[in-house]
Write a structure and sequence with these properties.
The chain is built from 5 helices and 2 strands; from the N terminus they run ααααββα. By secondary structure, the protein is of the alpha+beta class. The chain has a single domain, classed as Winged helix-like DNA-binding domain superfamily/Winged helix DNA-binding domain (Arc Repressor Mutant, subunit A, Orthogonal Bundle). It has a two-stranded antiparallel ribbon. α2 packs across α5. The longest helix has 25 residues. The mean pLDDT is 86.
């Protein structure tokens, strides 16, 4: 499978881990280990570094994010940030997600009857 074909919004919709990573990137610059630890805290789920870092590399290869090297504590970290192309990808993905799942989410909420 090519990198390009796997970055289409419909394809990403089938992979919650990637959606979660994009959500974290959309919220602002971050580094891989922070994505992993945030997932543990908020989702109570362990994201494997082997799932996170190759996806970040894939996003960078395709122009969806860039990174800078910064000192975080005593460690050098790659701080990842979405490019305008990456933000557009997220907007499209989130819109598709909303359109697809909003009816089901609304149906599970208690009515005000």
């Amino acid at each position: 499978m090519s990198y390009k074909s796997s970055l289409k919004p419909h394809k990403l919709l089938t992979d919650f881990n990637r959606i979660y990573i994009l959500t974290q990137l959309y919220q602002g610059p971050t580094y891989g280990y922070n994505i992993i630890t945030t997932a543990q805290t908020t989702l109570k789920k362990m994201l494997s570094p082997s799932a996170v870092y190759p996806f970040l590399e894939q996003l960078e290869t395709n122009g969806y994010l860039t990174y800078t090297i910064s000192l975080v504590g005593e460690k050098q970290r790659k701080i990842y940030q979405l490019t305008p192309k990456g933000q557009t990808l997220c907007h499209t993905l989130f819109q598709l997600f909303t359109t697809t799942f909003a009816p089901a989410i609304k149906a599970t909420q208690p009515s005000d009857a």
